[in-house]
């Protein structure tokens, strides 16, 4: 399997780090689970420090950006997890499912190695996007809608899941695509865009970023979207899914 993040992941650690509000949501969703496997772990965002975490990450480039005090990491793919059945209390996968080559196998594996619950942070491809993807990069919206699995597909793979909206705060510090909905100038900076994998799939990015820069200077952006400057947080499509695993073993007398 190819490892895309060995090519696009070099600047990841610069712009991507856990936002504390999202981290709290993830921690709460993990409940009392003491051991957690974090699949597609990247540099370790959203790995709770108060649990026994094992990270799984296929990209060497990402593994080498993990801090020295991050959880131990295993180089492996979601589709073939090198762990025994029921090895962990919980499984975690944040903003990674859309990269897996075989989602069905990955979800089956995740389900196989956990005893209690699976927590997933992802983006809902049925969401309409926001001004960046609607006005400037509709091809990005189309691309993401084609690669992010639908929430139904995830549920088919895992079993019944609880879905909750994850609004994104105006000062979110994790530089994923929707993070800067109220800080439009950030998207003009190529170093910021480098932390957003979908931009690497597009052509003609720079001219459109320049158009955004011009719209910011001449007031066009504010005319259309200035009302957002009054909002503290909005829904740009991120969702937290929690699947409580009912292992048949646990049901035995
Ligand atoms: C956008 S990053 C997210 C990293 C981290 N979970 C976070 O929230 O910051 C996606 C990660 O998924 C990893 N990935 C891609 N394909 C994978 C696969 N088949 N199995 C496991 N991880 C994979 C990438 O190498 C990358 O580190």
Give the secondary structure arrangement, pairings included.
Elements: H1 5-8, H2 12-15, H3 20-30, E1 35-39, E2 52-56, H4 60-63, E3 73-74, E4 88-94, H5 103-113, E5 114-123, H6 131-136, H7 138-147, H8 151-158, E6 162-165, E7 168-169, H9 190-193, H10 205-218, H11 220-225, E8 233-234, E9 238-244, H12 248-251
Parallel strand pairs: 1-2, 1-4, 2-3, 4-5
Antiparallel strand pairs: 5-9, 6-9, 7-8
Helix content: 25-40%
Fill in the CATH topology.
Rossmann fold
Low-confidence parts, pLDDT < 50 over ≥5 residues? Answer: 249-253
- Beta strand count: 9
Domain count: 1
- Shape estimate: globular
CATH class: Alpha Beta
How would you characterize the overall build of this protein?
It is a single chain. The radius of gyration is 19 Å and the shape is globular. Strand 2 (52-56), helix 4 (60-63) and strand 3 form a beta-alpha-beta unit. It has 253 residues and is an alpha/beta fold. It has one domain: Rossmann fold. The chain has helices at 5-8, 12-15, 20-30, 60-63, 103-113, 131-136, 138-147, 151-158, 190-193, 205-218, 220-225, 248-251; strands spanning 35-39, 52-56, 73-74, 88-94, 114-123, 162-165, 168-169, 233-234, 238-244. The chain contains twelve helices and nine strands. The site of S-adenosylmethionine has 22 residues, from loops.
